[in-house]
Amino acid sequence: MDVLVLALLVFTCAVALASWRVPGLAQAAFSLLLVAGLATSAALLGFRASALPGDDFRLSCTVALLGLLAIAGGGVVTTSIFRLIDGKETAAEGSMRQAGEVLRGGAWIGGLERAGVFVCVVAGWPSGLAIILALKGLGRYAELRSQTPGAAERFIIGTFSSVLWASACAGTAWLALAA
């Protein structure tokens, strides 16, 4: 079953990486594939009886792939959530572009945020989550006080969806580590 989980995670990571180049509504379909891949991996890991001796390499690969999925897949999922909230594809692209002008570097900051959240949860260091979120909020404070409509809301929605995705990936890693 470990090999099946690894194969599923490799496929899901490939979908996450490929979906960065897919525009519009197709990205929402890729997001559903990511969620399905993560949920299936979690279910398979949850039903696994126990790890066999010598499975350290596969366990390490599983956790590493889940970390990659947390980083790469979170941006796609967050963008799809923005598209769902904004409605029409053209309106979504316009409002995302406008918020992106105010909140520059969001994709990179979000990736680093998801990496930090994943590591903190897997390491069992919940205080690290508070540090990450405080640094992000303080770093964006001046930009969030601007007069750009929706920037603060987009920041909160983006942060929550990003953290929830990274936490789901980390929770799946916990299932792998618990066996």
Task: Briefly characterize the structure.
With 179 residues, the protein is mainly alpha-helical. It is built from seven helices and no strands.
Summarize the topology.
Elements: H1 2-18, H2 25-47, H3 56-86, H4 89-102, H5 106-123, H6 126-144, H7 151-178
Protein traits:
179 residues, mainly alpha
Structural summary, described in words:
This protein is mainly alpha-helical. It has helices at 2-18, 25-47, 56-86, 89-102, 106-123, 126-144, 151-178. The longest helix is centred in the middle third of the chain and has 31 residues, at 56-86.
Q: How many strands in all? A: 0
Shape: globular
Average of per-residue pLDDT values: 79
Give the proportion of residues in helices.
Answer: over 70%
Low-confidence runs (pLDDT<50, min 5 residues)?
Answer: none
Query: Would you tell me the structural class of the helices and strands?
Result: mainly alpha
Q: Would you list the SSEs in sequence order as H and E? A: HHHHHHH
How far do the termini sit from each other? 12 Å
Strand content: under 5%
Number of helices: 7
| Oligomerization state | single chain
Largest β-sheet summary = none
The radius of gyration computed from the alpha-carbon positions, rounded to a whole number of angstroms, is 17 Å
